[in-house]
Amino acid sequence: MLDMTEVPNLSSWQNWTGKDSNSVSADPKFVSNTNLHIDTTQKSPVSNAGIAITGVTTDFDNDIRNLSTPDIGADEFTSTSQP
Prior knowledge:
This protein has one helix spanning 10-17. It is low in regular secondary structure. The chain has a domain at 26-83.
């Protein structure tokens, strides 16, 4: 069992625990503090960065999830921003 040692960042946590290898620590670019859809006019670090889960085919708006590289989180989206 892990003790309650604080670690300074996600990378240190991943190295220390060997867990959360697919997690990211970044601003997902929500539309607002109350609208947790992703702002598609901005480049988002959660875009196509998820891992497909068998049986999860739609997001919380009933949009179809990408079957190979879904977006992280509950909102599947298509970005309109330029890379």
